[in-house]
Amino acid sequence: MKKYNVGVVGIGLVGSEMVKVIGKRNFPVDKLRIFATRERMEEIAGQKYSIEVAKNDSFKDIDIVFFAGTEGAKGASRQFGWKAVEQGAFVIDNGDDYRMDPRVPLVVPEVNSHHLSKDKRFIANPNCSTIQMVVALAPLHRAARMKRVVVSTYQSVSGTGRAAVTELERQTAALVSDPDATPEISVYPKRIAFNVFPHIGTGPDGEFPGYYREEVKMIKETRKIFDAPGMAVSATCVRVPVFFGHSESINVQFEKKISAEEARDILRKSPGVRVMDEPQNNVYPVPLEAAGRDDVYVGRIRQDPSCENALDIWVVADNILKGAALNAVQIGEKLLEMNLL
What we know:
By secondary structure, the chain is α/β, with parallel strands linked by helices. The protein is built from nine helices and 13 strands. Helix 1 (13-24) crosses helix 9 and helix 4 packs across helix 9.
């Protein structure tokens, strides 16, 4: 098998996970180079790596570059992404700088790999919450065509990055020790330990008044992924005190009737999806059990009695894996499968 020179830009939560996923899935790497803002040695999954500082000409001999880009972070792909493309690399960007750029396909391999091509060498990874939702909805959309999607998310702190994980740890420890304590707040606008708040990203947004940036991402990205610019989509995104794993309550209306049992059968046969739907036996997805796993988990599939041709479903996935690092590497695998690289 041909091997490729691979680059990873960024070595935070997502970048480290990308390196792990590349190794775990035996991606055909000849040489792996990791870039960050300063030179150093890092240990990832028991192996030491020399970290380089990214420069304008760092990508001359690299075939594919993964930009880790913690959700909402700016800079690296804007600074180096198109330069890497000019130097001959395919770029897969986890950041949100170019997701809605018409030059850039926004790809989830199980959903819209047909958007990949040789002449589009800059590819965007969707938002973590969008990825898991469209993996669950795409098979149902193919069967019955979606008309309207309403989603409420319950998003873990790891989506914000390592500093947010540390903040939840410290706040929790302080409050367990002293319930009357006032823990330090630095990452989020409000205390996250033992709390939830409906505010993810900047906003409100001018195009969608009252919606925060994360919610707008879900609306726009879903439309782009499904090639459906007029699709009715609404989102409410909530931060919860969970370390890893996003959960979503989704109400979806279809053009024609699809029963809950039909939906279960379809999803059981769908790649990347695991159905856990026996609520009478306490079998349904939860983030604690989805963390560290590759699949998108679906449960609580039921008919919506208030709306014609509508279902309610519950979707959970590891936001750092399928919601970021894994999806990016799967895009790389799809490029190889389609003989595009």
